[in-house]
Amino acid sequence: MKFSVSKTVAAAALAGVLVSAFANATPPRFYNLIEGTPLDFSDKEESAAVKQFKADGINPYNDDAAKIAEGESLFSTACSGCHGHHAEGKLGPGLADDYWTYPANATDPGLFSSIYGGLQGMMGPQSGHLKQDEILIIMSWIRSVYKGDPAKALWKQK
Questions:
Q1: Do the domain assignments include residue 140?
Q2: Half-sphere exposure (CA, 13 Å, Cβ side) for 11?
Q3: Does any domain span residue 127?
Q4: Domain count, the chain
């Protein structure tokens, strides 16, 4: 008898682990969502915001209007070719609704890991193209245009 777990169930369980880790004040884990290997941050510049984010998993820019506006500009340059100008999706998936191809992206550490480390298909690692701080800034804009179910916005559950 063969037992299989769907990607959705496995990813939902992972997202639950990430949320419970935040509740227990455990630092988040940043890893490649495809390979499961830890992300390599060696020789990378870390702003105070990035250091805080790596300690608590909460993007300090999510409620910062100036950073959100900056994120829109960065997204337009670095991401809109595949994800659309309004994160509605084109070649890549939409990012403004509550369907995540990789459910870990419902958390800020998961989304950061996806952008920094890359995913399957055309989404290569952006670690060589964007600074870690810029990734957080882009993420703040993505979160600001979210139109999905608020209960599925795990990044808001602090």
A1: yes
A2: 16
A3: yes
A4: 1
**Tokens of residue 35, six digits:** 């390979």
Residuewise pLDDT in 10s, the chain (158 residues): 444 444 444 444 444 444 444 455 788 999 999 999 999 998 888 999 999 999 999 999 999 999 999 999 999 999 999 999 999 999 999 999 999 889 999 999 999 999 999 998 889 999 999 999 999 999 999 999 999 888 888 888 76
| Cα separation values, 55 from 45, 82, 123, Å | 16, 31, 26
- For position 55, which CATH number holds? 1.10.760.10
**Reported pTM:** 0.82
Structural domain range at position 95: 7-156
Kindly write down the DSSP assignment for every residue of 42-84, as one continuous string: TT----HHHHHHHHH---TTTT-HHHHHHHHHHHHHHTHHHH-
